[in-house]
Amino acid sequence: MFKMIKELMIKYRELIVYVIVGFMVTFFCWGVAAIGKIFLDVENSWFQNFVNNTLNWIAGVCFAYPLNRKWVFKSTNPQILKEFLEFASSRLSTWVLDVFIMWLTVNIFHWNWWICKIFISAVLVMIVNYVFSKFLIFNKKKKKQKTEQQEESPAQA
Q1: Of 121, 119, 118, 130, whose CA–CA distance to 91 is shortest?
Q2: Which pLDDT score is estimated for 143?
Q3: Is the separation of the CB atoms in 133 and 77 below 8 Å?
Q4: Mind giving me the DSSP string for 107-136?
Q5: Which of 29, 75, 85, 141 is deepest in the core (most CB within 10 A)?
Q6: Confidence (pLDDT) at 112
Q7: Which pTM does this prediction carry?
Q8: In Å, how far are 37, 100, 149 from 52, measured between CA atoms?
Q9: Is 98 exposed, middle or buried (0-12, 13-18, 19+ CB in 10 A)?
Q10: Cβ neighbours for 77, distance < 8 A, ≥ 6 positions apart
């Protein structure tokens, strides 16, 4: 039984660590969102949601990148700035998704802000972020192929 659990943990290590890191980032962002909601909640306007989501996004990207780089995907890419910019760019698209979801659910449908943030937006954003990170940003196979192609190019010239 323990051997099977250990094998599953090894097989799904990346996904397990991503979920743990994802919850850490999510709770951190919720804290930022709560602070933003306290200071920006003059009325439940689209602008307040936009500003709060933007601050939340900036804090989340800065908090999430080093955790994803080191713990989840174990990146050894020496081009850290380029990798960070790719990471931030992919997160920008999920920021747009978050803003849209919050606008639609809170401002149009008038649903509860916290329910929408926790159960709709956070879940969808976490899933899309994993897909982008796994297949676009920290894709070791893609990076390895690029490196091999670059090493072969000078020999062919």
Answers
A1: 130
A2: 59
A3: no
A4: IIS---HHHIIIIIIHHHHHHHHHHHIIII
A5: 29
A6: 94
A7: 0.76
A8: 7, 13, 44
A9: buried
A10: 83, 138, 143
- Read off the amino acid at residue 53: N
Burial of 104 (0-12, 13-18, 19+ CB in 10 A): middle
33-91: pLDDT as tens digits? 888 878 876 566 778 778 887 888 899 999 999 999 999 999 999 999 999 999 999 99
Residues 144, 15: Cα–Cα separation, whole Å: 21
Structure tokens of 64?
């999430």
Q: Look up tokens 């990207």; give the residue.
A: 61
Residue in this structure with the two tokens 């602008």, named with its chain if needed: 47
∠101-103-109 over CA atoms, to 5°?
Answer: 95
Q: For the chain, give me the number of helices (H) and strands (E)? A: 7, 0
Nearest CA-CA partner of 105 in 89, 92, 116, 118: 116
Q: How far apart are CA 46 and CA 147, in angstroms?
A: 45
| DSSP letter (8 states) at residue 27 | H
Q: Using one digit for the tens of pLDDT, what is the confidence trace for 97-149?
A: 988 999 999 999 999 988 998 899 988 988 999 999 999 999 876 656 565 65
- Report which DSSP code applies to 137: I
